[in-house]
Write a structure and sequence with these properties.
Blueprint lengths: L5 H9 L4 H26 L1 H8 L5 H17 L1 H15 L1 H21 L3 H4 L2 H31 L5 H9 L1 H23 L3 E2 L17 E2 L1 H6 L1 H5 L1 H14 L4 H9 L6 H6 L2 H35 L5 H12 L1
Antiparallel strand pairs: 1-2
Helix pairs in contact: 2-6, 2-8, 2-9, 2-10, 2-13, 3-4, 4-8, 5-6, 5-8, 6-8, 6-13, 8-9, 10-17, 16-17
Length: about 325
């Protein structure tokens, strides 16, 4: 009787993960969650940051500029994928992971230290956009690199299942950012007094009835704490990444001298390869991104700035929807 070649595939699919495979998925997913956390902190606090760094403009204009600064991170993500994807093929996945997590962590920490428009004028929003672009650059290399790293550890017939865990990290990173913001916001507002709202000239503003206009301590300075706290996540991520081994597929290619010498030219130098990449980028990924960010990110911005739901309630609603 002739053996069915699919029998081995079915057995391979059914077997449980090994301890090493679970470790690879956990380490890759955890690091990527922390990177998404850093990236989405800005988006979760866009309205507050807009008031801090685009002060001279009316509220609606500030909101537009805040969203454009958020978008700046997306503009360089393809570049990050190209740069760090090439480095991953040349020097290895592990060291590329360390570079992306360092860039992301340091950029996020510096956002928490960045003086507002009152202190540095127009230099403040410019530096904010530069830091956002560095975050996008790091995330562009991290996300694809994590998928490749896990895929190279996975059995051939289980790569879709194993890499699916990486697909959850974006939502989990956004959820983590909201939970941290909710915790910090509740603590700061409960323990510190409200602060006066200042105009573009740094003068105190007043309500129509003559009373001073006030904002919560979290809106005044507490929003910086989640950014500064990313240093703790950076330390954890570095520790996790340093424990990881190089992927077996890359190690084998390196031993055999078969790794790519010019990955960009080999990937995009031929139209048949470049065409697939362009179709995936503009035909599939673009549409998916519109749906995802409209449903999970812009909904939060809309609730706060259009419907005028308070930020704490908005974050709770979005966090529950993500769960």
């Amino acid at each position: 009787m002739t053996a069915n070649p699919l029998d081995s595939v079915d057995i391979n699919r059914a077997r449980p993960m090994t301890r090493e495979e679970r470790k690879v998925i956990l380490a890759s997913s955890a690091g990527t969650i922390f990177e998404w956390y850093d990236f989405y902190l800005y988006g979760s606090l866009a309205a507050i940051i807009g008031a801090q760094f685009f002060t001279p403009f009316p509220e609606s204009t500030r909101n537009v500029f805040a969203l454009l600064a958020f978008a700046a991170g997306f503009l360089v993500r393809p570049l990050g994928a190209l740069v760090f994807g090439s480095l991953g093929d040349l020097v290895g996945r592990k060291y590329t992971f360390l570079m992306t997590i360092l860039i992301m962590g340091i950029s996020t920490f510096l956002v928490g230290l960045l003086p507002s428009y009152y202190s540095w004028g127009v230099a403040a929003p410019i530096l904010l956009i530069v830091l956002r672009m560095l975050q996008g650059l790091a995330l562009g290399g991290e996300y694809g690199g994590a998928v490749v790293y896990v895929a190279e550890h996975a059995p051939i017939n289980r790569r879709g299942y194993y890499t699916a865990f990486i697909q959850t990290t974006a939502t989990l990173g956004l959820l983590l950012s909201l939970l941290v913001i909710l915790s910090v916001q509740g603590f700061v507002n409960a323990n510190y007094p409200d602060q006066p709202i200042l105009d573009a000239a740094g003068q105190a503003m007043f309500n129509a009835d003559g009373s001073p206009a006030m904002m919560t301590a979290f809106h005044a300075w507490g929003w910086r704490i989640p950014f500064l706290g990313s240093a703790f996540l950076l330390a954890i991520s570095l520790y996790i990444r340093l424990q990881m081994n190089e992927s077996p597929a890359f190690s084998k290619m390196k031993q055999e001298g078969a790794q790519s010498k010019a990955p960009l030219r080999e990937a995009f130098g031929q139209w048949k390869n470049a065409r697939i990449a362009l179709i995936a980028l503009f035909g599939l990924t673009a549409g998916m991104a519109v749906v995802w960010y409209s449903g999970q990110f812009y909904a939060m911005f809309f609730l706060q700035n259009v419907v005028r739901v308070d930020s704490f309630t908005t974050n709770v609603l979005v966090a529950w929807s993500l769960i």
